[in-house]
Amino acid sequence: MNSPATAAPNATPCRLGRSVAAIFLGFLAVVVLSLGTDQVLHVLNVYPPWGQPMHEPGLNLLALAYRCVYTAVGGFITARFAPHAATRHVLILAAIGFALGTLGVVGTWNMNLGPRWYPIAIAVTGAPLTWLGGLLYVPKRSAL
């Protein structure tokens, strides 16, 4: 029988792996849902073809709207699959999203892909929406 001192080191890598997986699943959900919706809207000719700028404010607002929803979904998924401390996992995902969003602003600033407010809005709304999604997760408790 393992004592608590010997069992703890063996449990840590598994829990770390589950933590990384929870954060990755939330991130993957945001990316897949966002790009999937983008693709559908490109195929339906709502959006211009890939690689062409999208300057129409209404189309950018549409993209921002569903990305906001998907970002909250990513936070929810991360909280749901976090092995412990769901809020910490959600905040880590939010920080990753903010960092990548900020890189997106910097990287596309002079590329004339659309209005400059759009990538800024993505970067700024990401963290609070991820946190909101995490708050929406309430574990189901079994009835006694």
Largest sheet descriptor: none
Give a count of the beta strands, DSSP E runs of length 2 or more: 0
Helical content, roughly? over 70%
Order of secondary-structure elements: HHHH
The best one-word shape is: elongated
Kindly give the count of domains: 1
Sheet-strand content, in percent, reads under 5%
Low-confidence stretches: 1-9
Q: If you average the pLDDT, what whole number results? A: 89
Could you characterize what this model shows?
By secondary structure, this protein is mainly α. It has one domain. The protein has four helices and no strands. It has helices at 4-43, 57-81, 86-108, 117-136. The longest helix has 40 residues, at 4-43.
Brief overview, please?
The chain has 144 residues and is mostly helical.
Record the SSE blueprint.
Elements (H helix, E strand, L loop, with lengths): L3 H40 L13 H25 L4 H23 L8 H20 L8
Helix pairs in contact: 1-2, 1-3, 2-3, 2-4, 3-4
